[in-house]
Design goal:
Length: 288
Amino acid sequence: MSIVERALRRLQADASASRTRRVFGKVVEAATSQTATERVISLDQDALRAAGLLAPKHQEREIASQFRRIKRPLIAAAMGKGQEPLADGRLVMVASALPGEGKTFTAINLAFSMAMEKDLHVVLVDGDVAKPQITRMFGVDAERGLLDAVIDPALELERLILPTDVPNLFLLPSGTPSDRATELLASERMVEALNSLLQRDERRVFVFDSPPLLLSTEAHALADLAGQIVVVVRAEFTEHHTLLDALNRLPEGFSPSLVLNQSTEKSRPYYYYGSGVPERSGANANDS
């Protein structure tokens, strides 16, 4: 059975299971003053932990420490702390070769960890427009999002970013599905919309949950936009040639960071490689 056939079977199983998966958030009206309110995503963090999407209480400190080590070089490259900032370094794409390797878990936890920084505003973007898990799990399926703003120039992308009840954490939903998603993400309108968001708030970092690199042309369009790419690799699941094939799909000359996920080696359960420099950490992700 080929790589693509195995992945398609996994996607079909996921599609069947998704009908029974829970929603962990909802949009509510929150008071900003005595006379004003705003729409905020209220997240059930206990339910997210129970579903394995956030660290369980007994591992919270350990995994928080691990994601601190992962985020530090990303933030340094994005904001120019101790080095020259990378071009478009505030656009961070989290990807994997195939489904089931832990990219959504990594994207969510990385965004939560980055949001703990006092001088950052973190926007978690559901860039997996064909299979928008984060949009669904956060209870914003009915909200307009990324693709809507690219289709309609009159629709300001800024207005579609929703705050959450986690300080400094925001969400940009995937938007209305489109058969032209790849072309929309690769368009000049997409570049202009992202540049406008970056210029509006210099403290913003965008974390994109991407589709799998080997199953989606949308992932390639996002990779052309990102200044930093984190590729999640699942231990004893991702075959070496599969990873190499996925990395070869990235823009020529791009140096991604790699995360090894779900390793059973207690001494070295989780790796992070940024610009060729390894860091050790230890987390387990069980989501796609």
